Structure prediction request, 419 residues.
Amino acid sequence: MTRRHQQTMSPFEGVNYMFDQAADRLGLDGGMRHLLKMPYRELQVEVPIYRDDGSLEVFQGYRVQHDAARGPYKGGIRYHHEVNLDEVRALASLMTWKTALVDVPFGGAKGGVACDARSLSAAELERLTRRFTQRIWLILGPNRDIPAPDLNTNSQVMAWMMDEYGKRYGHTPSIVTGKPIELGGSRCREAATGEGVSITAQDAMRAIGLAEDRARVAIQGFGNVGSFAAQFLHDAGCRVVAVSDVHGAVHDPDGLDVPALREQGSGHMPLAGRSAATGRAISNAELLELDCEVLIPAAVGHVIHAGNAARIRARLVVEAANSPVVPAVDPILEENGVVIVPDILANAGGVTVSYFEWVQNLQQFPWDEDHIHKELHARMNAACEQVREVASREKVSARLAAYMIAVDAVSRARTLRGI
Ligand code: NAD
Prediction:
């Protein structure tokens, strides 16, 4: 595959670029390779709703179930104008590898509705969610497929999904995760992805001999994942020197007051309007190239590419977003000594606590915060250790090691179950 082709890969081709390398190393044969690569089922549905002005509008919705050899399909639902089948396939496949890597008993799925979520009123959002749930409920179930929030969906959307599913199948909290706590959601779920990013970043820092108090951290995206990662790393003694939102970034070499920045963020106020956003205003592109030790892209995919990879100065890139580094540029970063903590490891904290939520729902027994933190740390640290061990034994990157562990686990499960 040429470097030019690697740069123009679709999201699903991008995930499979790594899958194929792992499959080659594991010696997977053609049949098993095809079975594990392609999704089990792809459902595309029309989602009609009446808008508030009485007009009828029809949206396209998707649910892709990639693999369930290790447990029920699991993955988020996103509402975004760029949602399309290829992207949903890619994200479903990533979920299969992520759940296998952190050893939670789920497979991989993803869903979405192509819409401009911000243009919908709360009532329209509710109608859209209930209609979409009706259109896909045949393939959902607590032992079949369990959705969760993703871009532009939240605990309220999960509450509507649970309620709508319950009208057909009876009260079933375990049908979705990321619910409000009042409806059976788990404590610590909201912070879990950011906490997992912080756990994996600190593990990688230990591995390269970088003490927290010497680590300057730059974070692109100060939403759910980025702001919680910033808080956990700040609490651990790191200096968070830059953060950004979609409008731009702020850079303060002396360190930002992360708790104050988060406190002033209610209502999604732009960073620029917060008095705690000290230092200099810079662009999102400049943030990525800052002189710092730890760079955390926590916003959108493909932000580190052939055009800027050679200028990344961080020692560690911790992939909080899905696919923030295009596959073709891994070697450029590696040649420059940059260590990457891959997305399927770095942002797996969310699905791990989703698993805890599902367990609590099935057992009808809520866990306390200490128990959740302890279990999350144990699972994330075990996955980090395994990735480092395989990377060193096989002399491969952390990303390839992570895929090798995941693909191996899924192929073993599939072989044991039979087809
Ligand atoms: P969010 O919507 O809460 O926050 C996103 C942040 O990124 C916001 O600050 C937004 O202003 C900023 N942003 C948006 N577009 C941008 C752009 N083009 N350039 C720079 N900044 C931009 O989303 P989130 O839940 O924090 O998710 C962030 C990323 O992490 C996404 O890629 C998501 O798929 C991934 N992820 C999230 C979770 C989770 O549990 N929330 C789990 C795994 C992966």
About this structure: The mean pLDDT is 96. Residues 38-180 form a domain with the Rossmann fold fold (CATH 3.40.50.10860). The pocket of nicotinamide-adenine-dinucleotide is lined by residues 151, 193, 220-226, 244-246, 284, 298-300, 320-322, 347, 350 (CB under 6 Å).
